[in-house]
Structure formats: C-alpha cells, structure tokens
Amino acid sequence: MLPRIDEGDFLNKRELYDGFSDLGAEAQKMIEKIELIKSEMTKVIEKNAELEIENQHLRAHLKELEEQKQSDEQGGLSKSRKNLEMLYEEGFHVCNVDSMYGTRRINDEPCVFCQDVIYGERRQ
Prior knowledge:
- 69% of the residues lie in helices and 0% in strands.
- It is mainly α.
- The chain folds into two domains: 7-75; 77-123, no CATH class.
- It is rod-shaped and about 115 Å long.
- The model has no long low-confidence stretch (mean pLDDT 84).
C-alpha cells in the first residue's frame, strides 16, 4: 500500500523536484566539463604522438651523424665524397679549377685538385 499524501508532503515533494532539477543542471555542467577535459586530453595525446615520432626521427638522425663521424675518423668517406670519388674514377673532374668541374679528364690523368676535393682535409 502507498502512503497517503498530505498537503505538507506537497512541499517536501516540491523541494524534492527542485533538488532533482538542480542536480540535473549540475550534471549537465559536469558533462560539459568532462567534454572539455576530453577535448584537451585528445590534443595532449596527439601532441605526444607527434613528439614521439619527431624524437624517433631525431634519434635516427643522431645515429646517422655518429656513424658518419666514426667512419670519417676511420678514414672513410662521406656519401657526398664517395659520389665525387665515383665521378672522378669515371674520368671526370670534380674540382672547380678553371671551371673544369664535370669536364672529362684528358687520358684519365690524375688531378691533384680533384684528389684534394675528395681526400683532402675536411673543413667544418
């Protein structure tokens, strides 16, 4: 059986209804705050992913630089100098003395200027 409703109970029910209404408004504000935090968190996660990828690329580049430095210390040539060496071995000048870069060496005679470009001291 349901209890009988008095007029005094009407005020309690009105307060109860107003309480639910207030609670609904607070819940709506809470949902808006949660959506805002969710949006900001998504931005942070995306930025973190970008930074992780950039970090990986920087580490790979650093590793390449360290390997190149070790190869230079061991007398190895950089990629660009190896390319120049290959052109020189095919009979072309790689020096720019008298604008000879890219011209054919006569009878494939050695050119000290080209050799200096390829094997000479590296200026940093």
